[in-house]
Amino acid sequence: MKKCVFSGTFDPPTTGHESIIENCLKIFDEVVVAVMVNPDKKPFITEADRLKLLQKLYADEPRVRVITFHGAAADLLEKEQTPFYVRGVRDGIDLDYENRNFFATKKLKSDCVTLYIPAEQEKLHVSSTLVRNSAAFEKEYLQYIPAPIQKDLLSILRSR
Q1: 75: CB partners within 8 A, 6+ apart
Q2: Which of 2, 4, 23, 127 is deepest in the core (most CB within 10 A)?
Q3: Mean pLDDT of the chain
Q4: Cβ-proximal residues to 56 (8 Å cutoff; 6+ apart), any chain
């Protein structure tokens, strides 16, 4: 069985993330979606809410397992016993950033195989930052959130 890890802050999960996970399911038998916790970042929504949103989104997909993880990607790959690490990229800036992280991860886990999945053309502009900024300025953003979790995200944001 082939398994990959797709990690991120998912703050909040977007249709771009959903697209990358759908592509992972075309390649791998199991996809571990890891909500990474960075103590240096102040998240828009809580770790628990990000986990809950992703779990709801993939509740009917037994090949997707959603977890949280505190630590380095190399440690997560070791824990999950897979060398396959998937990263989504939208543009050259993302690729440069991901390449720097790849080289750091490779030093920590030499058997790491990083796979870059490019964003679909219609999702090149979609990012969690776009959603956070749109929400902060009370602009429309729901088209960037997967339909099954839109109401849940609205509820989370209203309760803040």
Answers
A1: 69, 108
A2: 4
A3: 96
A4: 148, 149, 152
Q: Given a cut of 90, is residue 143 above it in pLDDT?
A: yes
Return phi, psi of residue 36, to 5°.
-85, 140
Gap between the Cα atoms of 11 and 109, Å rounded = 26
For 39, the token pair is: 């103590």
pLDDT digits (tens, 9 = 90+) for 112-142: 999 999 999 999 999 999 999 999 999 999 9
